[in-house]
Each structure stands twice: as structure tokens, then as C-alpha cells.
Amino acid sequence: MRLENLNLESLPYLERYVNSGSPSGFTNRYTTSEETRPFGLTPFFHPFIFVAPEECFKYYGKMPAFKEFEETVGKNWLLVHPDMQDEKLFHSRNVSLKKSKKIKLVPTASGRTVELFNSSTKGYFKLHYTHIIGRITRELDNRIAIAGPEISKHLVSLIDQNKLDSRITLMRETGARIFQGHVKKKSVEWGMVWREKDAYKIDYNEVKYVIPVFSLFGKDILAKRDKPLLQQIINHIGADPTDYVLKQLIFPMIECYFNLIMNSGIQPEWHAQNLLVGFTKDFVPVKFIMRDLESMDKDLTFMEKHNIKVKFESAPFKCIDKTQWNYQRKHSFMYDYKFGEYIIQPLLNFLKKSYKVETLPLHHKIK
User: Fold this and answer.
1) pTM higher than 0.90 for the full model?
2) Can you name the residues that pair with 180 across neighbouring β-strands?
3) Of 158, 180, 172, which is closest to residue 126 (Cα–Cα)?
4) pLDDT per position as a tens digit, 295-342
5) Strand order in the sheet with 285-290
6) pLDDT band of 27, cuts 50, 70, 90
7) Of 10, 34, 180, 347, which has the most beta carbons under 10 Å away?
8) Backbone angles phi, psi at 225, to 5 degrees
């Protein structure tokens, strides 16, 4: 993508095409069907609508009404990814599954998280997906489905109380809906989560660009001759490459990372897909925007020690405490591996490749 074409409406394109994939190498190996895969050229797809009796559903938080979609009005429903239509659950008694003719969804960088395309309500659905995407399957049982909205509620409360660094914000996950049923006498839970598109309390008079971290250094797969956006930004504003990457991106991210832990007890999973950066018109990073919150760890030992009182219905999912043999390793995994290898190292690799910067001394500065 060319910098002159970048604006707030560019995010869907950045999600899908200015993305070199995960360092793990599994991004393209295990993905969704051709019609729905993030790197595909299909502009949108229609999901399936699953309808069941009201007593089969459990709810957490709030979801929009989506009243413009006549197919769902007055019904108890979930959206189902097209790849999942043959699951035995949807062929049980007293339920129905039909392909929507109205609802249009656009894949994001995550094949199971899809943007609602044709609605006045702006946001994303996280859909239950039983096949492997990347390295793992992406089911949304009750614990996983409500974990993101729970953490959203906790962090929003802290933001409202000015207890977090003002640069930290998030795409709120406001509600979850979970079907609870049986297949061959085995209990089954099938969930759906709603995530808002606009980051919480973001000021678009200040923030003029929102860019996923992977799109800063990733290649545009549809315009392979274009330089990485980060290189275009640095050249456009005439910044020193090393100073910009360290002082505007890496150091502020590290500050916010530990500010979040110290004030919330939440150990974030920050990697290049889960973190976005909000820039001013002059490309000053002023917001670090988190998403996919269910994958964050809840440090119960830290919360107890610092009198941070939160009740998590999703427990023990993603809860950690000092009695666990790998308590310290879990912290190290999130920081050294996820944040270090998926954000910091690619930014340093970018400096080395694009500007011939010797990065070994920078490692020492970061440490």
C-alpha cells in the first residue's frame, strides 16, 4: 500500500493483504476455505444463521440488536462460519441452519474473526471454528467466549478511572452468546462474540490512522513493489529510522505493557496481530489498541497482592497463580516470546533490512 492511500478506512485492506503472516509459518498452511480465507480475493461472504429454542442459549454482556437483519429478528440465533455447516450439531432436532442472504461478512487477519460489512452497527463477530487455523482449533465454548468480554469490562473500568497509561485502549468485546446442547448425549457449547470496531474512547480528531503492527513491516501481497508502510512513514517525515522505531514504537510499547500488568493484573498477549497503533496526522504513535482479549492471562496472585478485586466467571481459563510450576514461564512466554519475537524482533529486523542498521547494540538498549 502507498502511504498516500492510507486512511482510517484502510484497515480491512491492511488486515488481509498488508500482512506477511506469523513467524511460526502456519498462517497459510492451516487457514479457512478459499471463499473465506483472509488472503483471498472474495470481497465478502454470507454466514449461516443457526436458530434454536431460547432455553438453549446462555448470554454474557450485551450485543447489538441488528434490527436491520430481518432474518434474525425475533429469533434466538448464532452466526455460523460456512466451513462449519456440516457439523452434526446443526442437524439436531428443534434447530435450524440456513445461509443468510443479507448478512455480509469480511475476513480479518484471523479467519474466524469477521467484520460486519453491511450494517450501521460497526464491528466484528468472533465465530466458533472447530478446524485448525494457524496452530490450533478456534472453538468458543462458554469459558473462552466470555473471557474477552470479562477482560474488556475490567480494563474499561480502569480506563474510566484513569488507572492505565492514557496511550492504552482496546477494541471492546461487549457480549457473548453461547448455544448449549448435546450431540449423541455429549454436551456441546458453541459460541459467538461481538467486538466493537472503534477503539474505546478513541478521538478521531487526534488519531488519523490505525495500523495493525504486522502491517507496519509486512509486505503488501497485492502490491509487492511497495515498500513497507513503516519505511514509507519514516521517509515521509524525515525521521531517523533507529530513533523512530525505538523511541516512538518499541520503548512506548514496553512502558504500556508493564503499566497494564502493574495496574490491572492482566498479562497481555501482545503480538503483531493483537496490537494496533493509532497515529496522528504527523505519524506520531499516540494509541496502542488491543484486541483478541480472551488470550490474555489473569494473574490471580498479583491481583490478590495488590488488592485488585475482579471476579472471573471464565476461571480457571487463562488464570495463573504462583502455585503453578510454570508461573514464571507463563510470564516469560508472553513477554519474551510473544511480544519479543512477534513484535520487537520483526521491528529490529525491519531496521536491519531496510536501513542496514546493526541491531545487536539495540538489543542491549531494549534489555
Assistant:
1) yes
2) 189
3) 172
4) 999 999 999 999 999 999 999 999 999 999 999 999 999 999 999 999
5) 168-170, 285-290, 275-279, 209-212
6) low
7) 347
8) -85, -15
